[in-house]
Amino acid sequence: MQSVKYSPRFSFFVFRFSLFILSLSACLSCARGIRAQGTDVRAFVRQTFIHGVPYEQASRFTSADATVLLEMLGNAQERAFWPNVVVTLGVIGDERGVDPLIAFFNREVSGTLSSSEYSAKTSVLMSLGYLVNRSKNLKALTYLVDSLNPETWATRRLNWVSPYHPTEAERNQQLTAMAVMGLALSGHPIAREALVALQARLGAGAPERALVEEALRAHEVIAREGLAAYYKAAF
Fold this sequence. Notes:
mainly alpha, Leucine-rich Repeat Variant, 62% helix, globular, disordered N terminus
């Protein structure tokens, strides 16, 4: 794998990986006001989650619910809820979700993505991390590891435009940052090896190094104690 190169804009995504983790863990406290247990999965993902999909609640759904979510992911009328659908699919951890999630990510969209579509597509990389955590699926893990090299995105030929990045290079740099987060969430030993290798390639003063270091710290706890315990402890 070639050396990774980033523009200064990438440093924005160093803007606290810990805040990303804490925003999710905070959902454990707000979950009291969220319908989940005994709730139809459609109703769950159609809610508005200010701090993101609550892990504890989403993890209660089953493979049967994953089937429903996969149908929603293929239904354009559910577009507004795709971000929640994507994350919940990953948290459930059903391996049937791997190919549809990657296909959804790669799916061509004419013009610039809406904010909701962009959120859904980028959430795939974190969702795959959740899925690996539950299932140890190697295809999803390999996809994330390969994503640590921004040049990989060129070979994947993504035919969609970010609403927030003027160039493909900057879009791809963000996607690599999201893959770093996904690998941290996976807690998988191969993910740790990939993150350590990336850390070694980065210069000591590189702004993105802080993101990788935080990801490694999160990975260590998640691998040892699990995601649910990590979120509770973080909060």
